Amino acid sequence: MLRKGSALKKQLSNRDEQILLLLKKFDFLTRDQLSRYFNLGKKRNTNRVLHNLSCYLSSVRNSYETIYYLNNLGRLYVDCDKIRRKNAHVQHTIMRNEFWLFYKCPHDWKNEVKISDSTTSIVVDSMFSRNGFQHFLEVDNIQTMKGNREKIKSYKELMPSVVKQLGYYPTLVWLTTTELRRQQLEASCGGLKCKVYTINEIRGGI
Question: Is residue 204 over pLDDT 90?
């Protein structure tokens, strides 16, 4: 993976390269998420592995979590042009990645996908298939419920053209923060094939 003429310090192991590549694809991952995906075992070993990659990674503390992302040297190693920045969107990304892990890491997972017809368009947080059927994921973290309802309205307007293209109703999945917001989203999604999860229940392995 080394680029000719680069000033990188060392050739990494395959596992270490895969960690950098996963961060290239998913932007931000917590120490726990990286540990689970790569089967790193106990906290001490996970810390050792990530410490060995410290010259390629930046990290930020968020409550009890340590969140990792590629720094300039890490981006250079995996030929990545996208610069990650610490902002309010980080937790949104962490929640989305948690759902990717919860759904057993769908191989066709795509983030930020635009869907549209002649009058309406939206950007889907993530698209993936499960058991041969397409799913759309929306992460509700700090959005207003009014904004969520507007996006649901757009989904309803787009659904006839989506069904015509796919031949079936895809499932709209929401990941939210509280039981109250789950109930509000379920009520707003009437007429759509919908599932709503809270972050606590997927972290609990339900």
Answer: no
Predicted model pTM: 0.90
pLDDT of residue 63: 79
User: Do β-strands 65-70 and 29-30 pair in parallel, antiparallel, or remain unpaired?
Assistant: antiparallel
For the chain, first and last CA: distance in Å? 38
Q: Name the DSSP class of 177.
A: S
- Three-state DSSP state, 87: coil
The predicted-structure confidence for 173-191, as pLDDT tens digits, reads as follows 999 999 999 999 999 999 9
Give the residue among 27, 140, 14 at the shortest CA–CA distance from 84: 27
Cβ-based neighbours of 46, under 8 Å, separated by 6 or more: 31, 34, 35, 40
Q: Do residues 107 and 123 touch, judged by C-beta distance below 8 A?
A: no
Euclidean distance between CA atoms 185 and 122, whole angstroms: 18
DSSP 3-state helix, strand, coil percentages of the chain (rounded to 5)? 45, 25, 35
- Scored b (16 or more CB within 10 A) or e, 177-205 reads beeebbebbeebbeeeebebbbbeebeee
Provide the residue type at 20 as one letter: L
86: left (phi over 0), alpha (psi -120 to 50) or beta: beta
Q: β-strand 110-116 against 121-130: which pairing, if any?
A: antiparallel
3-state secondary structure of 164: helix
